[in-house]
């Protein structure tokens, strides 16, 4: 098993948690399974912008892979709505 080439797996943590939190969770798997993989547990690129659901359960710091932007969310929702429900004053093209 020592010379066997292991499959590399990138393990991305959830929203406002951390690589070390995910690593702790996965460490509970059977060691005979973990022995076959080279696991990498990076942290998200942004510090958590709000309260984490694991605060008080697992120590900080916590991270996010992307940052929430209210304006971008509203724009995407409006575009999706407009694609589903065309404006009433527009006539279909022949």
Automatic annotation (TrEMBL):
<dbReference type="Pfam" id="PF03959">
    <property type="entry name" value="FSH1"/>
</dbReference>
<protein>
    <recommendedName>
        <fullName>Serine hydrolase domain-containing protein</fullName>
    </recommendedName>
</protein>
<feature type="domain" description="Serine hydrolase">
    <location>
        <begin position="5"/>
        <end position="70"/>
    </location>
</feature>
<dbReference type="InterPro" id="IPR029058">
    <property type="entry name" value="AB_hydrolase_fold"/>
</dbReference>
<dbReference type="InterPro" id="IPR005645">
    <property type="entry name" value="FSH-like_dom"/>
</dbReference>
